[in-house]
Amino acid sequence: MNEKLNVCLLNDSFPPLIDGVATCVINYANIIQSELGRATVVTPAYPGAEDNYDFPVVRYSSLATEKSIGYRAGYPFSASKLEALKNSMFDVIHSHCPFASTVFARNLKEKNGAPLIMTYHTKFNEDIKRVIDNPLLEKQITKFVVQNISVCDEVWTVSRGAGENLRSIGYEGNYIIMPNGVDFPKGLAAKEDVDELRSEYGIDPQMPLFLFVGRLFWYKGFKVMLESLKYVKESGTDFRMMIVGDGGDAEEIKNEAERLGIIDKLIFAGAINDRNELRIYYTAADLFFFPSVYDTNGIVVREAAACGLPSLLIKGSCAAEDFTNYANAILCDNDAFAISKELIHAANHLESLKTMGEHAMNDVYLSWEDAVKNAFDRYHIVLQNYHKGITQSRETKTQEILYSSVSSITNSIQKVRSITASAKRRTIKTSKTITHTISSNITKKDK
Asked: What backbone torsions phi and psi does residue 375 show, to the nearest 5 degrees?
């Protein structure tokens, strides 16, 4: 058995903001901390966050950018946080986002000397394109992301499609595929809980129920989803579409559903953070409808499979990897009318969906315990390679000098802050002494 390691995990999103990558980091930290060593999560500060975990969470300064990019932008040059983490004796630094988290990780590596791994979870070029309405600036930011990834000692992707996307934005180094897992046990939620959920929303047991779980942004495929559901309604097929999650485009999506005349078929359940409760939603549905071509792995698709729920996915999407059409999923062209035909057929063949779901459960299930243990085994290989000088890092001498300079600057800032704080404390103490002396003298004179 591999020896225990002290691992630093970094990501730009973390509860109270929940997304697939945040869920991944939580599972990495929980499993490492309970079974494999020690884990520390480093992430941007978030108002109202309560970090009641079995592992430490270190938060650094952030900006309120949730509306524009979906999460808070961290300021990765926090001298005090870097200084506090400098002597943590991390064996491995593992970033899960190529933006602020990897910048912070690079600064931490400069101080700590541990190898840096970066997992590429998301098509970040799509994120950049969505937020930046300037081709030149978009190109420069993408170049920065690629450089940030290229200097890591090893790069992982969560799927083949994620690796292809990484290549498409200019990354030339090596990478390995390290799939994510699912924290649900394999199997269905209790029938009485499922019946209660359907009853709560007024959904007849025989009513076809489609389900989406995820963040409510247009890039998740909502345009084609709503259009296809309009065709289904117009065919005379009755159904309900349950949408679980929240996000910046929620109101626009609801308005579009209203415009298309399908709002009566949709149920917006909001975000469900309780994992046991979410299992009930998966089990209560007949088909998981996930038309995203953006996601690189689609943890929610595998969560659905863990609960015996088959998915309708877009052919060629990363989410569709490892699935076979009509065996354990329905794979369809990214076309609203074509999707509607599959939905209508599914609504009229619910028993076939159950069989398909059983196959999905047995074919693609991977627990987080197994996924993290696979990653942990790889940590040891990365460490061995790092000590031998075998690394994927393509850091140039200029970049090395730059980050050494940044590290020196942050050290200087911390020293200035310490000196200033010390001077302030001395000033306060002196002030108190003077005040006390004056007060004593006044008292004596009064006497």
From this structure: -65, -40
